[in-house]
Amino acid sequence: AALIAELALRGSHRDASMVDLGCGEGTVLDRVAAFDAKGHYTTLVGVEEDDESARIARFRLDTRATDRAHHEILQGDAFYIDLPGFTTVCADPPAKDVAGWTNRCVSLLEPTPRARALLLVSARDLESDGALCATTLCRNVEAVIHLPSGSRSHTKGLQALCLLTSETNPCHETLVIDVSDRRLVTGDTSSLPHLAASSTTDKSVITDAALTEAIDQWRLNRDVRAADLRGRWRVVSRGEAQVNGYERVRPDIPSGTREAMQALQWELESLQHGIDAYDKSVGDLLKRLTRLSATTDNEKRAPER
User: For labelling alongside 239, which of 52, 135, 179, 196 has CA 20 to 30 A away?
Assistant: First the structure.
């Protein structure tokens, strides 16, 4: 929720509008209202089917968004409620019918270059035969962020946040960022000096500020310069996405390390009595080295940045 709010606020402008489809208890809308210091979002709307969740969301928004020109929680099915266009659409949909939710999000975006949808999906939906690649939906995927495990408390497995453009502003390339093996730290990190800068020294964490900065750099320069994302991003063309999907990014192995691995692989293959004569762990090591060498050779041939 904090990351979605940060991304929504970073790209906002005056008279912006936002709808959260299936808003639950209004966590995302509450964060946007709380941290929108410039008051860019004059319209905040949530759609929720559950009575109790809608009541809580309404209370939160009524308390927080008192100075907004328009704010409300609508109760009903997000697919059938009549809604206007918005500059920001977000959704954390159920696992089924992700393609339908993606289409719904994109269709509700205003036809402007700044309009964005933020959609949470499972890693399965990003595979070549998944919901976002098996159809023409990939033409509107601006960026994919592979999130740390557990980012969605109610969903198992790896998840990702997708940034989608409007129907009139298709994307020819998609930025893919992989922080799935890190811990996401959100909110004010000023009390944690080692997390305050985007180029943190703690490589086990990533901040929402670093990710939003990376998205900004991509939009402006078609490049990502954040030091703590080096080796964790690549660019995927629309055609490549339809063939291979939006796979996770594996950092390059330094040339010296690769050479040492290849030398060890050769030594193991040349053992005097044959690999099967030694401890099983030696054979397993050779298998892993062989598999990793084949993987890196394939990745070297792939067009990446």
Answer: 179
